[in-house]
Amino acid sequence: MNASRLLRGIGAHATITEDGFTPGAYILSIGGAEQSHVDLARPHKISYEYLRRMGNVLNLAAPAGQPLRALHLGAGALTLTRYLQATRPGSNQVAVELERELLDFVLAHLPLPDGTVLETVIGDARESLDRFAGQTFDAIVLDIFAGPDAPAHLATSDFYAELAALLSPAGVLLVNVGDDPPLAFARRQVRELQSAVGTDGEVAALAQQDMFTGRYPGNIVLAATPFPWPGEWTPQLLAAGPHPAAVLTGEDLDVFTG
User: Are the C-beta atoms of residues 229 and 248 closer than 8 Å to each other?
Assistant: First the structure.
């Protein structure tokens, strides 16, 4: 299957093409750039490194198999939505996506696993938060921006605080930050997120080891909790990979942010 659709809101084509290496898997590209990878036959398998790290954190967010209430800001091809349904059947999920045509395109060509409970919301990630007033989520995933060109209103401590306020007491907030050397934007996002969760919460940064040298472009996953970072999570995440993995917290994270 190969499909294409013009996203008029951003003036770029979205395409879905077969992954030539994995039968039953597909790649979503926007404007010629790969954006998401979906394995319809094995939704519990995640190809992209940063999404695998997010999935590993979601594995620790509750006992194995226990459904989560999850909010996804930025839908893409709904890779993590599929992952949660596969690993935690019955999870109640919400996806917020700015581009209605993208969401319609993905759902038409890449159907969700049977039993998936997903509410879709079309709108800006921040402006849409009002509809969730009084609700809480066990997991919130922000996967919208990359680097200093990110929408300014989505990269501030005020926005992160609004997200943190929607977390359940045992919830976790995951933010994908893409950046180029010297990673000034990523370092700033760590500080903004730390400010948002305050002294009661904590932030961890997950990536390939050499990302924290600041010499390479790539993705860093930030995980924020409204409680102190559980010490047992770090060795579990390091063991889960992808390798070579690094998980920075506390003083080590402060050294990175400078």
Answer: no
Mean pLDDT, residues 44-62 taken together: 97
For residue 85, give the 3-state DSSP assignment: helix
Chain mean pLDDT for the chain: 94
Q: Are 171 and 140 in contact (CB under 8 A)?
A: yes
- 87 vs 42, 70, 100, 225, 239, CA distance in Å? 11, 13, 27, 21, 19
CB-hemisphere CA count at 13 Å for 119? 11
Q: Yes or no: is domain 45-257 CATH 3.40.980.10?
A: no
Q: Where are the domains of the chain?
A: 45-257
Q: What percent of the chain has pLDDT over 70?
A: 98
Tens-place pLDDT, residues 27-46: 999 988 888 999 999 999 99
Q: Which two tokens stand for residue 185?
A: 């934007």
